[in-house]
Amino acid sequence: MQDWVGLSEIIRNIGIVLGGAIGLVFAWMRVRAANRQSEAQTRQAEVGRREHVAELFNRAVGQLDNEKLHVRLGAIYTLREISQDFPDLTKAVLELLATYLRSSGVNYKDGPPPPDVREIMRLVRERIEDER
To answer: What is the rounded CA–CA span in Å between residue 29 and residue 35?
Structure first.
């Protein structure tokens, strides 16, 4: 009888260890799946954010030629925010604004430049100072 009790305890302990090991494997598999899902959601959110920024960028480019000063200033401020939030787009924003200044064809010899041009010059100056 003693042998059966000892054997049943050994079998029970082996079962507990095997059950625990199987539980650990399943828990590890669940954690891996949750991590993969989280990484995929993060990538998807970043793609969505990039698409939104591209849309904002394109809209701001179109608004730079608007007749109304407040629309042009809004476009400039939007481009400034894009360049701050996405450093990899800073060069593109600055090149775009420099091209806008060159192609505007406005003569500033008679007085100070208009507010939108002053704002662009301030933005470019800030970025140059930030790089130093």
So the answer is: 10
DSSP H helices in the chain: 2-63, 69-85, 90-103, 115-131
Collect all residues with Cβ–Cβ distance below 8 Å to 116 and sequence separation of at least 6.
69, 72, 73, 76
Burial class (CB in 10 A: 0-12, 13-18, 19+), 47: exposed
Which residues have C-beta within 8 Å of that of residue 101, sequence separation ≥ 6?
117, 120, 121
Alpha carbon dihedral 47, 52, 57, 62, in 10-degree steps, equals 140
Round to whole Å and give the CA distance between 22 and 95: 59
**Residues 90 and 57 sit within 8 Å (Cβ to Cβ):** no
The set of residues, in sequence order, having a beta carbon less than 8 Å from that of 11 and lying 6+ positions away, is none
Distance CA 11, CA 105 (A): 90
Could you read off the pLDDT of 16-61 as tens digits, one per residue?
Answer: 999 999 999 999 999 999 999 999 999 999 899 889 999 999 999 9
